[in-house]
TrEMBL record:
One of its GO terms (molecular function) is structural constituent of ribosome. SUPFAM superfamilies: RL5-like (SSF55282). The keyword S-adenosyl-L-methionine does not apply. Belongs to the universal ribosomal protein uL5 family. Keywords: Ribonucleoprotein, Ribosomal protein. It comes from Davidia involucrata (Dove tree). One of its GO terms (cellular component) is ribosome. This is Ribosomal protein L5. GO terms for biological process: translation. The keyword DNA-binding does not apply. The lineage of its organism: Eukaryota, Viridiplantae, Streptophyta, Embryophyta, Tracheophyta.
Length: 102
């Protein structure tokens, strides 16, 4: 079909400030979307639908780029040595700050 991107795969590695911004955005979106999460030895994996773009104002002017993409696969690689350590990191990541209202 014209204008349809079928099996397009793109991998990006984020580090530093860009990674931090993405993780903050993901933590906000994950509480709003129902995405199953797979915890492995040193990684966290999940998929997100393109609704993630709706929570990213910087992508608003470029949404036409994403309109034919069905979703995103995200892998967060951690410094954990075991699956239990990775689970602990993920559970702490999703916690709200003590001073933050719910």
């Amino acid at each position: 079909k014209k204008g349809y991107v079928s099996d397009l795969a793109r991998q990006s590695t984020l580090r530093g400030h860009g990674m931090s911004n993405f993780l903050v955005r993901i933590s906000t979106v994950m509480s709003l979307l129902d995405s199953p999460v797979e915890i492995r030895e040193n990684s966290i994996q999940f998929s997100m639908e393109t609704e993630f773009c709706e929570f990213s104002p910087e992508l608003e002017d470029h949404f036409e780029i994403f309109e034919h993409i069905r979703g995103f696969n995200v892998t967060i690689v951690t410094s954990a040595n075991t699956q239990d350590e990775t689970l602990l990191l993920w559970s702490g990541f999703l916690q709200k700050d003590e001073g933050e209202s719910q």
